[in-house]
Amino acid sequence: MEKGLIVSCQALENEPLHSSFIMGKMALAAYEGGAVGIRANSIEDIKEIKKNVNLPIIGIIKKDYENIIPYITPTMKEVEQLIEEGVDIIAVDATINQDENFLKEIIEKYKNQKFMADISTYEEGIRADKIGFQYVGTTLIGYTEQSKKIEKFEVLEKLIKDCKKAKVIAEGNFNTPEQAKRAIDMGAYSVVVGSAITRPQLITKTFADALK
């Protein structure tokens, strides 16, 4: 994965653009705009995206289970599906809500696979770095109970300074070019932008709200 902009091309079942075909075209548009990588959810979307672009893919599978809080690649089943599909990087929930033994197991079991830890606090990021994740992303800041009042740039800055081996990726509500550039200038390896590029219903809402 090169340094630069990674575009998250996702649309869940309740969203207007939910379609593997559309996500493939969204990835192509991102590529034409200068993206160096794509983040994608589900095997179906990943397969379609591969037909449209030859870019590194951060793959996830969002799955809800009863009595399990993590939903981003939460179990070994999803990890194995993504490995079988052959994604460049597999992202998993690596917050304190996820069992540390599971995180250690996937790193140990699949030594040739690159993994990204989606975290929500500084402490979670340092834990993932020590476990052996190649990438640590600030993906879940603000989305967990333990990170409700955390400022993303503060966590990003500290992780960039203190992670020993993992490359730190800025992700999670980096919604403007200025914020993305600030993250890179601080030393982030890459920045992932999703909704601000690929969710037109949310982009439209920002304009509509501004006019009220």
| Largest sheet entry | 8 strands, parallel, barrel
- The class by helix and strand makeup works out as alpha/beta
- Low-confidence spans: pLDDT under 50, at least 5 residues? none
Instruction: Give the strand order, joined by hyphens, for the main sheet.
Output: 1-2-3-4-5-6-7-8
Distance between the termini: 41 Å
Average pLDDT works out at 97
Helix content: 40-55%
General form: globular
Strand content: 15-25%
Total of DSSP H or I helical runs spanning 4+ residues: 9
Number of strands: 8
CA radius of gyration:
16 Å
Q: What is the N-to-C succession of helices and strands? A: EHEHEHEHEHEHEHEHH
Question: In short, what is this structure?
Answer:
The chain is α/β, with parallel strands linked by helices. It is 43% helix and 17% strand. The chain contains 9 helices and 8 strands.
Characteristic terms for this protein:
single chain; 212 residues; alpha/beta; 8-stranded parallel β-barrel; 8 strands; 43% helix
Structural notes for this entry:
- The chain is α/β, with parallel strands linked by helices.
- It has nine helices and eight strands.
- It has helices at residues 20-33, 43-52, 76-85, 100-109, 122-131, 152-162, 177-186, 195-198, 200-211, and strands spanning 4-9, 37-41, 57-60, 89-93, 114-118, 135-137, 167-171, 190-193.
- It has an eight-stranded parallel barrel with strand order 1-2-3-4-5-6-7-8, surrounded by six helices.
- Strand 6 (135-137), helix 6 and strand 7 (167-171) form a beta-alpha-beta unit.
- Helix 1 (20-33) packs across helix 2.
